[in-house]
Amino acid sequence: MASDWSGYVTSFLLSDIGEGIREVSIKEWFVKVGDRVNQFDSICEVQSDKASVSITSRYDGVIRKLHYEVDETALVGKPLVDIEVSGSSIDSNEDRVDQVQDQDATSSIVSPLNKTDGVLATPAVRRIATENSVYLCDVRGSGKDGRILKEDILEHVAILKRQSMEGSSSSTASETKVAPAAAIKPQTPSPLPSLSQSSQVEDLSADRVETIKGFQKAMVKTMTASLGIPHFSLSDEVCVDELIKLRESIKEISLSRGIHVTYLPFFIKAASLALSQFPVLNSSVDASCQNIRYKAAHNIGFAMNTSRGLVVPNVKVVQAKTVLEIASELNRLQELGHQGRLGKEDIIGGTFTLSNVGMIGGTYLKPVILPPEVAIGAIGKIQVLPRFDEQRNVVAANLLPVSWSADHRIIDGATVAEFAALWKSYIENPGAMLLALK
Q1: 285 by DSSP, 3-state: which?
Q2: Residues contacting 250, CB < 8 A, separation 6+
Q3: Among 95, 138, 286, 412, which one carries the catalytic annotation?
Q4: What is the pairing mode between strands 79-85 and 8-13?
Q5: Pairing of strands 292-294, 283-285
Q6: Residue 408 is among the residues annotated as catalytic for this protein
Q7: What is the pTM of this model?
Q8: Which of 168, 231, 319, 378 sits CB 3.0–4.6 Å from 298 for a disulfide?
Q9: What's the pLDDT score for residue 174?
């Protein structure tokens, strides 16, 4: 073995992940000192203030030193590991990596979905697998030496979809029913809410100091920046009786396609349609607030509570998606979020945000804008409350509280009110959305 290795040790530097990220936290090592690695084998998983990514090896060789322990902070451009490489192969390794980097500038970064050892696949194929939430180790490669090709990923995705459709017929979901327009009975007390993973804490016998990092560190940055934005806020209530009926009517259709449809896809689609009429709410301003950039894509984010803290992934190009397509993407993002596997591309690029706090509880609130966005909405909990109908009879109505905030430097109150009224009209009369679809 010794004759195969020249003893040349090179430092593998942490590559620039992009988005201005200069440091990351080491979440997990997949190798230890003495392990042999090949090109594109996963070395470790790191957590930035935006997402988790898996770092892959640039060389074939043997791990000689890990420069950081788990939970320590690693700096971009500094050594991550030392690898002993073969003197005869280092040049060829460099050539191979350069060729791959010509195809994909982010060759050293892959999704944590694909932190597999010994899987042969180009970064482009790994990216396709990540976009479709596919584990490479589950795919049979048809290329040379078992290399996984693009066609293998697409065939695997097609098989998973067929299996999902076959099994969806037995799926059930609890649905909210429309309250009848009759006398309202006293509601039973709400059960005690269960604590989310992020809110559960250990019993402390003494003070403990914890470093702010990951998603919490991102929240510190965005919330500090939001202090410089004058917020204009507006709240309203929306009757969702018709939306509840519509969701009930399409339940079987959506489940037959393997998609669980909540109310959120309708809220997001209605927001996109309203943004088309009021594009200033889908814009951003520069640091000096001298120029407004109107965004062509409606990349609508939604706040998600995870075990690692609050994160805001976004559904890309909502204006070009159907409600079912939005629901399917939400299913994917929510699954990755709960597993802690959201990638950078799932989080960056948001242009507008909806916070669905009603899933936890609460009614009205003042949502805080996420810079560089200029507007945000917060959805409360649907409640059955007494209201008057057209004949002035007291009836039970399913009411949704909603709150909006906008950057008052560039958006006036009338614009927010008109946007909110249009969004409300789409939710109260979902059929009106059909007239606005292109």
Answers
A1: strand
A2: 261
A3: 412
A4: antiparallel
A5: antiparallel
A6: yes
A7: 0.62
A8: 319
A9: 38
